[in-house]
Amino acid sequence: MTPKRSLIVAALLLVSLAPAAVSSAESVEPTAAAGGVFEKRVEPTAAGGGVFEKRAHPPTAGQLAERAYREALRLEGRGQQEAARQRLGEALDRAPGHRGARLALATLLARRGELGEAKQLLAAGLEAEPRHAAFAKLQARILVAMDAVGQAVALLERAAPPLPADPDHHAFLAALYQRQGRHDRAARLYGQVLQLAPRRATWWMGLGISLEAAGRPEQALAAYRGTQRVGGLDPTSRRFVEERIEGLARAHSVKSPAGSGRRPGAG
Questions:
Q1: 155 and 68 share a domain?
Q2: Residue 40 β-bridge partners
Q3: What is d(CA 112, CA 118) in angstroms, rounded to the nearest whole number?
Q4: Helix crossing, 167-179 with 149-158: angle to 10°?
Q5: d(Cα 126, Cα 128) in Å, to the nearest integer?
Q6: Ranges of the chain with pLDDT below 70
Q7: How far is it, in rounded angstroms, from Cα 267 to Cα 262?
């Protein structure tokens, strides 16, 4: 395989390794201990004491939605996907603003290959909350699967949180810049996220790919070696990195830098 072809294949792999934006912890409101709200009422007595009476109010739509959501998570954990899907749908019918239920249902649908329905569900959530990063990341993954990379990039840019708040969001965006051939921008963004999380091997590999494609072989070699220092790549990615280190070292006679120097991709 030629170096150029290897870079393209590795770039596609990076997009597939981008973290799925799934969080099952979000909910609309806390659940009351027994599904309802309790009121204490004191009745005076001749002895001057009081009689305490508990009166249960019917649970609210939000509480019923939360109950359905929690049950859906239990069902999904037991592998009962269809039952989980029904309960998540019930949760959204009762409380359309339940973020956790919307995200969990969209994720379930996407995993089942029902991308159109998942995309529609997330679009409704993003219409209400255009900058909801978790909705945006999952929607972007669906768009990439539909070969709509440009739309995915625009969505991630629009919903981007501050970089320290969600480095994964920006690393995903860097992987898509790379797929578009915007390697200078990808390398710059990879360099920034690596300053926050320097032990992410796939980000070091992504940085190396874009630096090499941008014609900066010495910095690319340093980035690939950074991947080896961190470790943790899958076997396919590890072999790719080893091949690129060997190829760059042989072609350019670059030795491993002895000092700390400037972080690759920072400029």
A1: yes
A2: 54
A3: 10
A4: 150
A5: 5
A6: 1-55, 253-267
A7: 9
